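Researcher: For the annotation table, I need structure tokens for histidine kinase. Please keep the output clean. Sequence:
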Amino acid sequence: MNASNDDGGRDQAGAIRSFRKSNISIVLTDPRRDDNPIVFANEAFLELTGYAKSSVLGRNCRFLQGDLDNEEERKRIRAALAAEEELTIELQNVRADGTRFLNRLMIAPIIHEGECIQFLGVQTPVDMDEGQIVADRQLKELQHRVKNHLSMIIGLIRQQTRTSGNPHEFSSLARRIESLQLLYEELTNGVDDGTVPMGSYLSRIASTIGHIDGRAGIRLQVEVESISMPVTKATSIGLILSELLTNAFQHAFEGRSSGLIDVKAMRLSNDAFRMTVSDDGVGLPGGTDWPSNESLGGRLLQAFVTSLEASLDIQRVGTGTIVILDVPASPDDQGIHVSP
């Protein structure tokens, strides 16, 4: 699959529109604060409920129930929160305009250092006419992966917050959650075999990061073979690409008005997976230790690489930098193929 922003950013804009219109919404709540308020809500949640972000943050999720008689469902939710347990439940909710919808709610605690620091909520509107919902296996698989990765990301953000004193500890979550959101869409829109089409997934991540961090004059080119991979590996690879592209857009072209970032991904002859991210920017200064443990992005990058038992090779070239990620094959890859 090929993608380029040479066409005036139309592909990037299309990817962003698709992401923002997704009906799979995500919120995070903080049980350490009074009344377990919402501390993060993605764009899909705002689209689904019709509320502005300013009307959502700082409130308990129960406001979505309005005056509806959901007492039995509320009891089950309260019990799951008190026990810090996962729960999947369907209940009626009310949008900002007063219209009702049937919500399939999945709740999961995010545990860090033995403490429940957040609850993850994934909302899926159920088609009340046809009763069609996303397959349970796919939903539970995503919830498990999102919860585990958010636990690691939030933990690292908390560590950085303690050392830097930055009170906006959730501001760094948005881009990472967007990458997980795109993974969710690939899971629910793709074939029902527990794998992720990497061509579509990585191209959409690249478009999303290009939209967020890109600027005029910096071209982004993506070429990914039609490979399907297990959810576990796809999650980490997508988050690695997000970190690499963000770093390239923010630092590789300092003092320059134009440049190229090139992303390639392929399966090697030994069934390993290789992804390269290269740029023709200013290059890394001599003696630079990157990725560094001193930055959140560097620590996340190293954590994701370690989770894959992969290698990360950084090469300084005449103009720019090349980063090569090699992910070894594993038994989980059996049956994964490259489409002709």
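Researcher: And a one-line annotation?
Model: The chain has two domains: 2-16+177-333, 25-133.
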